[in-house]
Structure formats: structure tokens, C-alpha cells
Design goal:
This protein has helices spanning 4-13, 16-19; strands at 39-41, 47-50, 62-70, 86-89, 95-105, 111-120. By secondary structure, the protein is mainly beta. It has a single domain (29-120), classed as Immunoglobulin-like, CATH 2.60.40.
Length: 121
């Protein structure tokens, strides 16, 4: 049975809990995504993207989704299918790339987003 103190706590947060509650009855904090530092690499290099500094303030497990937000004309980098904290990409065209990292918590109810710029010379 739920205690009166817990019921009062739930009532005091009102509809905010409907947006996504973490384990238990508190509000679910958004994970903080960190796609890593900008990089400049020579053409032909393999680029390692590192999102391992991403974290969730509630301690929830997090899941990683990488995507190409911007790439130079003629590039065929396309979709990144990896869902791990670190991934490797192989840009085949010189120019500016923006790679986006979206991190979600285990409920998919809160997200964090970060972008990293990759310059290929």
C-alpha cells in the first residue's frame, strides 16, 4: 500500500509525471548526450565518434542513436546503423560533416541530443 506521504508527493508534481516518470514516482530527467569533441582529419581517415561521456542523471540505462545531420555534396556516408557509445565512420569526401547523437533512457521518454563537427581535409 502506498503511504500518504508518497501520495502527497505524487499529487504535488501533478501532470509533470505524465510526461515520463523514472523508476518509482519522481520526474524522469533527460539523459545528457555528449558526441565528443570536434575533429579535423585527413581524407581517407577512419573517424571514431565517442559518445561514452553521455549519461543519465537518474542512473537509468541509456541507448545511443547516431545519424548524419549534414554532409558535403557528393558524400555517400548516409545512415549510421550503430547503436553503441562509440562508432567508426569513413568519410570519402572532403568537407564539413555534422554527426548527431541522440541518447534515450530505458523508457524512451526522455532524450538528450548532441552534435559533433568533423572536418575532412
Amino acid at each position: 500500500m502506498m503511504s500518504l506521504a508518497r501520495l502527497v508527493g505524487i499529487a504535488s508534481i501533478g501532470t509533470a509525471c505524465l510526461v515520463g516518470c523514472s523508476r518509482g514516482y519522481g520526474l524522469n530527467g533527460s539523459p545528457l548526450a555528449n558526441a565528443g569533441a570536434p575533429q579535423t582529419v585527413p581524407l581517407g581517415s577512419t573517424v571514431t565518434l565517442d559518445g561514452s561521456r553521455s549519461w543519465d542523471p537518474d542512473g537509468d540505462d541509456i541507448f545511443f542513436f547516431w545519424s548524419v545531420a549534414k554532409e558535403p555534396a557528393g558524400s555517400s556516408l548516409g545512415e549510421i546503423r550503430e547503436t553503441t557509445p562509440t562508432v567508426k565512420i569513413h568519410p570519402a569526401v572532403a568537407g564539413e560533416y555534422e554527426i548527431q547523437l541522440v541518447v534515450t533512457d530505458y523508457r524512451n521518454s526522455a532524450v538528450g541530443i548532441s552534435e559533433v563537427k568533423i572536418t575532412v581535409t
